[in-house]
Input
Amino acid sequence: MKKETALITLKPKNEQLKKLVAYYYFHTSTDEQHAESFYFYPNYMHALTVYRGNDILINFKNKGTKITSSNNKEKLTVLYTINSNEKYYVEMNGVFNKIGIVFYPLGINHFINKPLNEISMQQIQEVSLNPLFHEILSELTDNSSAEQKLEIVENALLSIIQPFQENELQKAIKEIIKSNGAIKISELEQITGKNRKTLLRLFKKHTLTTIEDYKKMVMFRNSLNYAIRHKELTNLTDVALYNMYYDQSHFIKHFKSITNETPKTLLPKIKQIDNEDLYWYFLED
Output
């Protein structure tokens, strides 16, 4: 990326938010001629993305979003994103001011006053949360430092935080992640005391995915995390077995179904942002 752009991550400072938010990222450009595009990949951590001074065009059919400079420099747009089963394309042009809030599983559900499927039915969509949240975000300026932005965003989140008490769903997701997606639904029924039908309803209501899709998403994401963090020390067989795939061919088939590339060709192209699990594949001009 050019010198006029910056992309950094920061951890939450507020103790309450540390339990719900994995990290924030701040992505900015002051270059009117700047152009970049990248893919990002499925993750079981949901995100809110805040844009200041940008117009957003979402192409649901082609799984892509285009960001351009807006004539309204104070325009605020909040997008909700969960990428569950496909790579997603982003094109960013000109001046932009972007803040990502990446939540732990079910973290975002503590900041909405209704089930997630009543807020959004798309994997990426503009959302309107509590007016107080947007009012506090309006304090953001182009001159705000990353630390100042973090403080404003955390104040906005704390203004709308509330309990989320679907304990059985939280147990189920914890077990899926712990097992790398290998746990059977019958085992989840025993652990949670809820039958398959009830669990499926809870997943669709609060995560917008089925149980099987969530398990596959966890398997893919954990394998991607492991492969990138240990790419100098492991081979594809190690990655597959560590992440509960049947064998290397099972891993490659699943990986290719999501990314349209094999692990061998794609993994070297993916860039890790700071030390977080923020992995983007930047396309060449």
